[in-house]
Amino acid sequence: MRLHPSDLRLLAGGLAACAVALGLGRFAFTPILPLMQAAHGLDTQSAGWLAASNNLGYLIGAVWAGLARTDRGRHRLLTAGLATVALSLAAMPVTSSEMLWNLIRLVAGVASALVFVLASALVIPLLAGRGLARLSGVHFSGVGLGIILSGSVIAWAGGRGGDNAAWMTAAGLCVLLSLTSWLGLRQAHGGAAAAPASHPPPAEFSLVWLSAAYFCAGLGYIVTGTFLVVVVRSTPGLETVANLSWVLVGLAAMPSSAAWGILAGRVGFRAALIAAHLLMAAGTALLGLTAHPLGVMTAAALYGGTFLGIAGMAMAFGRAISPGNPAQAMGWLTAAFSVGQMIGPVAAAALAGWGGWMPALLMAAAVTLAGVPMLVAGRLRPSSSARSSVPRP
């Protein structure tokens, strides 16, 4: 496949935006958290609230992004979001106040959502319009790239200079990636073209049950996404593989969106989502039960290989369920997922304070697993309508 230079710029801009929004804006916190605990005495419950603040901000930002009605407005918000993510990362070392940290992480969540939602709204339709929909996985692989950078470059800087050095390194990487994104997407237009007058028949599945299952995935996924490095580092004998396990999460995440999209196209959204829920629950439970490096790496790979796939497939399934009003369906799903993300870190931190990380992780695995019967129950009647024409997440 020969790509035009404009296609390469679009892909680079989208990939960099995803790396900024989630890989750094959200997940740089994961390898830096144990450094903050060592330097500032931050307890697990406070860490859970920091994660919840970030996820609340993400919900606010996702709603805000949906209010932009013109390409010019989207570009302005996207640029502001890129700059704000970098500034929020650089602001973390400026204070040691937990109240201000929560505010900064809230702002980071808002900006991350603006970048992720608006960049995706520009890139994905343009790829489809150019006959390159199969490359949408490249766009979402930026999340994995950001996680890899956080577990390697940022963790290395933190190991040498502490949490402040790690935050500043994250901010520096964010500036470089933001510039790449801005240069790649500044000429991108037409990402929100009007929907065609006719729509395919809706997939015969309950949006309520899908939203409930997505809530379970959101709660379960964010526990591992927030505390994985802390859990591994606190396990005797595994300290040296903590950051490596987070890098493996990123490596597994990079191809996962495209891989799950292909599987869903063959077996249907429902079956693929059930499989992804089962695998993510298994990885989360394994992380809570194992004290062996191979077990930790397996858990990291299962987590990294599923969380983006679940998000992408759920959103695509929502569009298939409500083809005439996909924005409403995606709004319900985003709200459900965000509420789960806000509850997860706080609940897990409370359980960890009571009985260690095993009950916290087993709780997250159980909630993820609870999404499976919801996906089974949500089928309204036998249908193959959800098996074809899978839009890329």
Our measurement of the CA-to-CA distance between the termini, rounded to an integer number of angstroms, reads 21 Å
| Poorly predicted segments | 191-197, 382-393
Task: Give the CA-based shape.
Answer: globular
Main sheet specs: none
CATH architecture of the largest domain: Up-down Bundle
What is the CATH superfamily classification of the largest domain? MFS general substrate transporter like domains
Structural class: mainly alpha
Number of helices: 14
Beta-strand percent range? under 5%
Number of domains: 2
Order of helices and strands: HHHHHHHHHHHHHH
Description:
It is a single chain. The chain folds into 2 domains: 1-188, Growth Hormone, Chain: A (Up-down Bundle); 199-388, MFS general substrate transporter like domains (Growth Hormone, Chain: A), CATH 1.20.1250. It has 14 helices and no strands. The protein has helices at residues 5-24, 29-40, 44-66, 71-91, 98-129, 136-185, 207-233, 242-253, 256-267, 269-289, 293-304, 307-321, 326-355, 357-377. Helix 2 packs across helix 7 and helix 4 (71-91) runs antiparallel to helix 5. The chain starts with a helix and ends in a 16-residue tail after the last helix.
